[in-house]
Design goal:
The complex is a heterotrimer of chains A (95), B (317) and C (90).
Chain A lengths: L3 H26 L3 H23 L6 H33 L1
Helix pairs in contact in A: 1-2, 2-3
Chain B lengths: L3 H21 L3 H21 L3 H30 L9 H23 L9 H8 L9 H9 L1 H19 L21 H24 L7 H17 L11 H25 L10 H25 L9
Chain C lengths: L1 H18 L1 H5 L3 H26 L4 H31 L1
Helix pairs in contact in C: 1-3, 3-4
The chains are: A mainly alpha (95), B mainly alpha (317), C mainly alpha (90).
Chain lengths: 95, 317, 90
């Protein structure tokens, strides 16, 4: 008998997996570099965010939950800024 | 249905495929990117083998810092080579290299497949020696590194220093003492500056944290030092800091501090605890953390120096 | 429950590893970097799920370090590309 918390966990992680698959499909199939970058950042933010959300009910120490959220925050910030950097390189490369 | 074997098979095939793509890649950038991906997958394998310390070290040093070192050096080399193109290695040399690589792989595979059912191992000895009265740490890996195999660990840091000296000696004689060329562009983009401003402080804190918990939980000096090195490099790429002159006293002191402190404590062990590299019981943990702190310093100084490269002639600080 | 988690982890890993095809195909160097970034983030996610499903201790710190290193590697690679562009423009 799966508890409600487990069900929530599975649902969140499943949704996160879906976003990662979507990110890969975008990276491989989108026609343009910039649109691929767009797909990549969505996978980063939502994919990891949902997985982290799904794992929080399973932690044993509350500090671990904070660490998980910190991981997500780090990836969010660095991913967004790196996307900006990549975008600049792409734009300058086009001229 | 047991999924675990499928996951492991997936992981193993991915690693082989990515390793193959490292060899097959047409240019330097693709090869180095494949190499970093390979390192990340290897870290995954270490987690599957219940070795989180090794996983972090693999990702930090084997994949992250080495990948950055390769691409930075490779790009600099390509810029120099444009002036003097060399002949490509002939097919005979390529076949010979390939045959040698296959030979090494077969030898390794044979060695692993021919292991007896209970492979000979020093692990039980190491654990008892490390958890004896001379240790008292919660993390057996750190205990083995700093207590059972202390000499090896110290010599590894010496090897790191030798590598830095080797990199420095590539520079021109006239440039000795100067600083290496700056790591980033002269006007870094605002996004880069922003990211470095946010990442470097947080990363430094996390690096120190990982070093500190290494006594009782997965972590340690090498991992923490590598993270600190990465954060210093991020700051240098955003031009917050420049690579220092290689004759700077603080730089050279920082480089040798790790192994020097280790050696001094090891020698002191002769009088204090009766043996070379023995720690007096009860004091082991503070001494070990003391040694590790200086090793973190040396690693954090040495790794960025390896990436920064030889001293540059036209650049005076 | 654990089996489903492991399956999810395997799927994530497979997905982002397939994205690595961009490393060999990608017409420009930036594409290869993007594939690497996807692998990094997906790797962190898959790692966390596997570690929680198989009870590996202390993986939160490993994932934290990985997040930092992925950011560091991305910055370094972009930096190399920017320096290269700066040289060809000058």
């Amino acid at each position: 008998m799966i508890s409600l918390l487990d069900l929530f966990s599975l649902a969140a992680i499943g949704a996160g997996t879906f976003f990662f698959v979507a990110g890969t499909v975008g990276l491989l199939r989108f026609p343009d570099s910039l649109s691929r970058l767009h797909a990549l950042t969505k996978a980063d933010n939502l994919g990891l965010g949902l997985v982290v959300l799904g794992l929080i009910p399973r932690v044993e120490i509350s500090l671990a939950a904070l660490k998980l959220i910190l991981i997500w925050g780090l990836v969010l910030t660095s991913g967004g800024s790196t996307a900006q950097l990549i975008g600049r390189v792409l734009r300058r490369g086009r001229k | 249905m047991n999924i675990l074997p499928f996951l492991d098979i997936l992981l193993a095939s991915l690693i082989v495929t990515v390793a193959a793509s490292t060899v097959v890649a047409r240019d330097l950038f693709a090869a180095v990117v494949s190499y970093v991906a390979y390192g990340l997958l290897l870290a995954f394998v270490w987690i599957r083998l219940y070795a989180p310390d090794v996983a972090l070290t693999e990702a930090a040093v084997g994949s992250g810092v080495t990948g950055v070192l390769l691409i930075t050096a490779g790009k600099r080399l390509a810029a120099i080579r444009k002036a003097e193109p060399e002949a490509q290695p002939g097919p005979a040399l390529k076949w010979l290299t390939g045959a040698l690589a296959v030979l090494v792989a077969c030898a390794l595979a044979a060695a692993i497949l021919m292991l007896p059912d209970v492979p000979p191992s020093l692990a039980p000895e190491a654990v008892t020696a490390a958890s004896g009265p001379g240790a008292g740490l919660g993390n057996p890996i750190t205990a083995v590194l700093i207590s059972y195999r202390s000499f090896d660990t110290m010599l590894e840091k010496v090897v790191l220093i030798l590598a830095v000296v080797g990199v420095w000696s590539i520079g021109k004689d006239a440039a000795w003492g100067n600083a290496p060329a700056p790591l980033g562009r002269s006007r870094p983009s605002p996004a880069m500056v922003f990211l470095a401003q946010i990442l470097a402080p947080i990363g430094t804190l996390i690096g120190i944290h990982i070093f500190w918990v290494g006594a009782d939980a997965p972590g340690g000096a090498f991992q923490g030092g590598a993270l600190l090195a990465a954060m210093w490099m991020v700051a240098m790429m955003a031009r917050f800091d420049e690579p220092p002159r290689i004759d700077a006293k603080w730089l050279r002191l920082g480089l040798v501090a790790g192994p020097a402190v280790f050696l001094v404590v090891g020698l002191a062990g002769i009088s204090m605890a009766g043996n070379f590299f023995a720690y007096p019981p009860g004091f082991a943990k503070p001494i070990i953390i003391f040694i590790e702190a200086f090793m973190v310093l040396s690693i954090a100084v040495a790794l960025p120096l390896l990436v920064a490269g030889p001293p540059s002639e036209g650049y005076e600080t | 429950m654990n089996e489903l988690l492991l399956a999810a982890s395997g799927l994530i890993l497979l997905a982002v590893a397939l994205g690595l095809a961009r490393v060999l195909r990608g017409p420009s160097e930036v594409e290869r970097l993007m594939a690497l970034q996807l692998l990094g983030t997906g790797g962190i996610a898959a790692l966390l799920v596997v570690a929680y499903a198989t009870n590996v201790p202390g993986v939160d710190d490993v994932a934290l370090g990985l997040a930092l290193l992925a950011a560091f590697a991305a910055i370094a690679f972009v930096n190399v590309l920017e320096v290269e562009q700066g040289e060809t423009e000058a």
